[in-house]
Amino acid sequence: MRILVVGGGTGGTIVANNLARRLSGEIRAGKVKITMLSASDKHMYQPGLLYVAFGQMMPDELYRDQASLLESSIDFHVDPVEQFELDKNQVKTKSGKVYMYDVMVIATGSRIVPEQIPGLAEGAETFYSEAGAVKMFKRLREFQGGKIAVVVGVPHKCPIAPVEVIFSLNDYFKARGIRDKVTIKYHYPIGRIHTIKEVATWAKPEFDRMGIEYETLFNVKEVDVQNKVVKSEEDTEYAYDLLIAIPPHRGMEVIEKNGLGEGGWIPTDRHKLTMNGHDNVYVVGDTTNLPVSKTGSAAHFEAEVISENISSIVKIGTPVRDYDGKVYCFIETGHDSATYAMFNYQNPPNLKPPSKPMHWFKMSYNKMYWTSVRGLL
Amino acid sequence: MTTETGTPAAATASAEDLHQLAELANLVTAARDAMSDDIVTRLAGAMSEGITLLDRLTRNEGLIYLLQELDRPENQHFLVSLANAFTEASRELATTPQAQGGLGCAIRLVRDPGVLEGLRLVSLIGSRLSKSMREMHRHGG
Asked: Mean pLDDT across the stretch B2-25?
């Protein structure tokens, strides 16, 4: 059986490594071959970008060579897919090669598209790329006081990020002794301060305690970079000295160009994680159109289900597990405390009080991530 | 009477338990206060690399086989002999004049039966190794 994994992010890497472990006997016997096609020879720990934006991590700590994270039995190529030919069970890559498959896992991820909102790319600081996070840290470092606006584009990766950046800003300026000179205003696109009701209920008194101003139903329409004003679709506006944005996201361009899914999100069966209408094509992580958070943890839990099912199909001819929508999000509530939200399709999150050990758990996870993508945790 | 004498003893035991619990809590608090983000990060980093290394070692068939072979008494004895030979050779080398080179020097060296035995051991290992490697490549390994 030829298994093709397209994309070398969190989801793709965990699927490939888990499969290589589960099917090691079949691979040795020549019955199974796993191939991974990726756009990059580097693997980035994306949640670390928030820490870079606040000077808590250096950019080089976020990267590892992709090949070093993969089981040696995986045939890895830096050669991104440009054409998906699902009717022929094959893909064509940038180099012109054709890869046939019996089972394919699409794990191409998502991308930021700040250009969708006029002025956002030029006027706002973001932490969704290495260059952006470093630039944001330098801007924060030189900031001596004034009004900071945090705005949120939709849809976006990591649903907790808007709340986390508020906690981090509060602690960052407290540590510098200038919190009283900084006004922080949070803008959120729906009618409460977070899309997850339980997070909104928990965060509101926390924002009040920290003196954070907030405005809900604020969908960013445009940024007047010249006059430093951010305007909403709801006809409100806010004059800022520093604008921080969670930029809107889309799925990868190759998914849209190949007509696999609107906005780059592939229609996916919420339990089987197969692409609708294609039982031999699995979708993992941000690439799905599932109503779950676009986070590394969702990709991780989905990847476990996919790899277990593909290996059981190889071994006994049938899948054995269903994805229950599980997501686990750490929530950094400042620079020395954290909590977490765990939920699935059936159960909403039940947030625990923030604590220092939980923050250390997150700090530890920042390092243990590499063990996790290798398929060990 | 039994109740009267039993109660103070139980109370004492309970007080001691509480004292020990308080000591334990103090220890945990002290450890917690002594920790920092940097310590936690470094510990986690070491643990992560350690787990990865352990995983690679335990799934390496060659290493596992080597460990099984090293469990044999004769191989353990061989290892001890090898370690001793390294030490003795190192000391001897330090006190022996530097070799002049040339055929005469080589002939003088091979006159030593020990050297010849050593060469024979190396050639035996080489012979078996090459046979095994040839077999592996013949089977596409």
From this structure: 76
Q: Is A356 on the interface with B (CB under 8 A)?
A: yes
User: Residues 119 to 178 of A: which have CB under 8 A from any B CB?
Assistant: none
pTM attached to this predicted model: 0.87
Which of B32, B35, B44 lies closest to A367 in CB terms? B44
User: Tens of pLDDT along A117-138?
Assistant: 999 999 999 999 999 999 999 9
Give ranges for CATH 3.50.50.60 in chain A. Answer: 2-109+252-327, 120-248
Q: Residue B2's pLDDT is what?
A: 46
Q: How many CB atoms lie within 10 A of CB A209?
A: 9
Q: If contacts are CB pairs under 8 Å, which of residues 5-64 in chain B contact chain A?
A: 32, 35, 37, 40-41, 43-45, 47-48, 51-52, 55
- B137 CB near a chain A CB, below 8 Å? no
CATH superfamily of domain region A120-248: FAD/NAD(P)-binding domain (3.50.50.60)
| Interface membership of B127 toward A (CB under 8 Å) | no
Compare CB distances from A367 to B32, B41, B55 and report the shortest one's residue: B41
Asked if A366 reaches chain B (Cβ–Cβ under 8 Å), the answer is yes
pLDDT band at B6 (very low <50, low <70, confident <90, very high): low
State the smallest CA–CA distance between residue B23 and chain A in angstroms: 20
Least CB-CB distance to B52: which of A56, A336, A376?
A376
Which tens digits make up the pLDDT trace of B102-129?
Answer: 998 888 888 999 999 999 999 999 999 9
Res. B1 pLDDT band, cuts 50 70 90: very low
In the prediction, which pLDDT does B28 show?
86
Q: What's the gap in Å between the CA of A24 and the closest CA on chain B?
A: 11
- Whether domain A2-109+252-327 has CATH 3.10.450.50: the reply is no
The answer to whether residue B140 scores a pLDDT higher than 80 is no
**A368 and chain B: CB distance < 8 Å anywhere?**
yes
